[in-house]
Design goal:
Layout (H helix, E strand, L loop, with lengths): L1 E6 L2 E6 L10 H13 L5 E6 L3 E3 L4 H5 L7 H11 L3 E6 L2 E3 L3 H5 L3 E4 L4 E3 L2 H4 L7 H9 L1 H8 L5 E2 H7 L4 E2 L5 H8 L1 H5 L2 H11 L9
Parallel strand pairs: 2-3, 3-5, 4-6, 5-7, 6-8, 7-10
Antiparallel strand pairs: 1-2, 8-9
Helix pairs in contact: 1-3, 6-7
Length: 210
């Protein structure tokens, strides 16, 4: 359910559970953590999904059994945020719930026009993952973060672009080509130079424990 394609220094990770809106099980999260921790060897990393939803967050049955509060979510977002390489979330559709964390931890996010963004933790009686509110606020500000986390609003792709939650909107057929094009300079550069530039730009939320 988690696919990893390595093409030289480019690692592409694909969530492949489209029949369940790419909702994440404990097994899938464990595999994502393993890949993210190993991706220190990568020159660029792209996260994407199969189907028309990037991820609906935690698998509902497993969420009720405790997955919603698992440390795996923080381990995943923290590992992504600490990577020295360029990280891109190529959002093939809606991004919801705990899955928001891995996208927030990436350097760049691009989305398709029909994508929606929401994080209904308060309504469900859960807290967001510890680092997610700070990373979200760093991108879009405290008020807009409260709009999503406390007012429970679903944000459209156009609103997400205006907020700064995503960096570009592209047609579905151009999503992966655009994400791959964005990695070209990093793949061609000296790894130490790329890492130094990433550090000077500030990795998103890398100072946040997780």
């Amino acid at each position: 359910m988690i696919e990893l394609d390595r093409d030289g220094g480019l690692w592409t990770v694909t969530l492949n559970r489209p029949d369940k809106a790419n909702s994440l099980t404990g097994e899938m999260l464990t595999e994502l953590v393993r890949i993210a921790q190993a991706a220190t060897q990568a020159r660029a990393l792209i996260l994407t999904g199969r189907g028309t939803v990037f991820s609906a967050g935690a698998d509902l049955e497993e969420a009720r059994a405790g997955l919603a509060t698992s440390e795996l979510w923080e381990q995943l977002s923290g590992a992504i945020a600490r990577l020295p390489c360029l990280t891109i979330a190529a959002l093939n559709g809606t991004l919801a719930g705990g899955a928001m964390g891995m996208a927030l931890a990436c350097d760049l996010r691009l989305a398709v026009p029909g994508a929606r963004f929401f994080y209904p933790v308060m309504k469900l009686g859960f807290l967001p993952q510890p680092s997610d509110p700070a990373r979200m606020a760093a991108l879009i500000g405290p008020a807009r973060s409260r709009l999503i986390l406390m007012a429970g609003q679903k944000v459209s792709a156009d609103e997400a672009l205006a907020f700064g939650l995503v960096d570009r909107i592209v047609p579905p057929e151009e999503l992966m080509a655009t994400a791959t094009a964005w990695t070209a300079d990093s793949l061609a550069a000296d790894p130490e130079t790329a890492a130094a530039i990433a550090a000077r730009c500030g990795k998103p939320g890398s100072e946040i424990p997780g």
